[in-house]
Amino acid sequence: MPLFGNTFSPKKTPPRKSASLSNLHNLDRSTREVELGLDYGTPTMNLAGQSLKFENGHWVAEAGLSGGVDQREAQRLRRRNQQLEEENNLLQVKVEVLLDMFSETTAEFQIMKKELEELKSVNRRRK
Model-level pTM? Predict the structure, then answer.
């Protein structure tokens, strides 16, 4: 029994083998991507029955699927929406102008009515 020594000394583990046990490292890159699933492709998702894919930084509806709106139709709808917004703005301006005209006419009418009553009262005093 040693006084200053450790009686427990585990054996050293043997070094690991450097060579891989699989043969995937022997495959070329394209085969390896297919085998390991590294070829992700474009991200896709399904929202409300419409399939979308991510291309060039934008989500785009996949072509050829029923229920989806194609790009031309979406562009036409955007143009129509823009036209309707412009028309709505024009009509709002027209309504404001008409309300201003109505207010001015009402004010003038009230002034004339007051003047007429003053003239009637002056005319009654003369008689």
Answer: 0.43
